[in-house]
Amino acid sequence: MDYASRTSAVEKVVNDMRKRDSLLTLRGWRDEVYTIAASYNSPPLFAMERAATSAFGVRVYGAHVNGYVVDENDNYFLWIGQRSKTKQTFPGMYDNLAAGGIGNGLSPTETMRKECEEEAGIPENLLKNLKSVGAVSYCYEDENGVHWEGEFIYDLKLPKSFIPKAADNEMERFQLLSISKVKELVIADNFKPNCALITLDFLMRHGFITPDQEPDYFFILENMHKSGL
Amino acid sequence: MDYASRTSAVEKVVNDMRKRDSLLTLRGWRDEVYTIAASYNSPPLFAMERAATSAFGVRVYGAHVNGYVVDENDNYFLWIGQRSKTKQTFPGMYDNLAAGGIGNGLSPTETMRKECEEEAGIPENLLKNLKSVGAVSYCYEDENGVHWEGEFIYDLKLPKSFIPKAADNEMERFQLLSISKVKELVIADNFKPNCALITLDFLMRHGFITPDQEPDYFFILENMHKSGL
């Protein structure tokens, strides 16, 4: 069986389950296919509607960017997005500057560049500062199934003069926030959970959360990098 | 039982085991006590000779610093130490700029500052750039017992003009090496293993190893942040 036949077989199964309304997650049909592979850089096995991936527990991958500004006094600020209120998933919640799923034939870095342009209107010349800085891994179960995810993290230092533009209506607005304000938002309950994790990783990597002040330093880092449930 | 009585009881047991030569690890007596606690920031329970900790499998903590220089063309260089040939553990192997165990009543950051001064002769005024950037957790077993360790990581950006000095004879020399040379050393077999891990973390956080080029990106990060065996 080749890629096309496997994809078509999977499509039949998933469409049938949707018709029978047998899986809650399929009510949130995304009309977006993910390429499924043994790993993010292995040859694709087949494509599958994004909403169905949690029913099968396959691992999915994404890329997120922390957009930040450093002022003349070495104070850091982070660009925090707020998701559109009409977005299907996590409407109105806080988000990173840009993020997107991997699985359309683009590498993690290519995906990240594309999302920076599409979601935040970042021009090509500012993307020369885009830097791969790590990843988080997590797995959780909810009423939609098993979400096993790996998210690549990028940092992008931006000039003070640049203002992101919500180019594709995914985001309602962007705010440039101080580190203390960002810490408050991460702790509060209206941050998209995996985006809060990406932001937490930024705060730890840049010395804004230290082992001297945080008793659960190892616990946090170990739980940010877990394979499986 | 208080701290002093517990420490004295443990001391008796460990001294007795040493006299009977019943544990291989005690042949490598360090004459250095570690404070044992439920966590690095919990109240100390008792003190124990460092060489005995692996016999009991207690978790021990350390702090390591990546000392680096960025030249005018934005090229990065890392200060890599080479351990003294007379050092008891890992003689002659490559090391970070400075590192030390936690457990003498100092916080992770205080320990790091002290080691920077003692092991690499870094003056106080350069330590203002010292930044907490994460940690690695790992656990392995060898002929000496179980080594369950948590290492805090610091980055220290240094001016090109500063040359580290092996102040306390722990290091034989320091070399300022390009990223490509550092990558070669990390892969080769003469790097102290946990120091190679700290260096690998630096390379990943600073964009010198990316998910586009490294197929085991998640595997590496997950295994760098593991609790227990």
UniProtKB/TrEMBL annotation, chains A, B:
<dbReference type="Pfam" id="PF15916">
    <property type="entry name" value="DUF4743"/>
</dbReference>
<dbReference type="GO" id="GO:0044715">
    <property type="term" value="F:8-oxo-dGDP phosphatase activity"/>
</dbReference>
<dbReference type="InterPro" id="IPR015797">
    <property type="entry name" value="NUDIX_hydrolase-like_dom_sf"/>
</dbReference>
<protein>
    <recommendedName>
        <fullName>Nudix hydrolase domain-containing protein</fullName>
    </recommendedName>
</protein>
<dbReference type="InterPro" id="IPR000086">
    <property type="entry name" value="NUDIX_hydrolase_dom"/>
</dbReference>
<feature type="domain" description="Nudix hydrolase">
    <location>
        <begin position="60"/>
        <end position="201"/>
    </location>
</feature>
<dbReference type="InterPro" id="IPR031804">
    <property type="entry name" value="DUF4743"/>
</dbReference>
<dbReference type="Pfam" id="PF00293">
    <property type="entry name" value="NUDIX"/>
</dbReference>
